[in-house]
Write a structure and sequence with these properties.
about 130 residues, two-stranded antiparallel ribbon, about 15% strand, alpha+beta, 3-stranded antiparallel β-sheet, about 60% helix
Length: about 130
């Protein structure tokens, strides 16, 4: 079912799985020690036409600060120097730039590499531009 909906795109599949977990269609049953899912609900589920649309919908559910972080970072490029990002976020009146960047990393939008943050995928960057 999921392969059909995502056409095997790994990023799309990962984000779809995260979405199914958030909405309760897929969850881990501790007593059974296995994943359980609602096949009928998943089959009836309308899936976005593409990964960018799914990511954009997910970004729109985030806090305004995190949306702003993703929007600003997407305009800069796939790799952003942390000090540059901090300056841009101060101008955007983000309450705590460091916390907002950490949250974006925790939620899987960025990866941290030395003094830079990078989008995990160009489609994530593209979705940030659409918000």
């Amino acid at each position: 079912i999921l392969f059909h909906k995502t056409l095997g795109n790994p990023l799309f599949l990962r984000k779809l799985l995260e979405s199914l977990i958030e909405e309760g269609s897929l969850h881990f049953s501790i007593p059974r020690r296995r994943w359980t899912w609602n096949t009928d609900r998943i089959q009836r589920m309308k899936v976005s036409d593409g990964v960018v649309e799914l990511l954009t919908k997910q970004i729109c559910t985030l806090s305004k600060d995190l949306q702003t972080v993703l929007k600003i970072a997407s305009c800069i490029g796939g790799s952003i120097d942390k000090s540059t990002m901090d300056l841009l976020l101060k101008d955007a009146q983000i309450r705590s730039p460091t916390v907002a960047i950490s949250e974006a990393i925790k939620k899987g939008f960025f990866i941290e590499m030395e003094s830079k943050i990078n989008f995990v995928h160009d489609k994530v960057q593209q979705a940030g531009e659409c918000v």
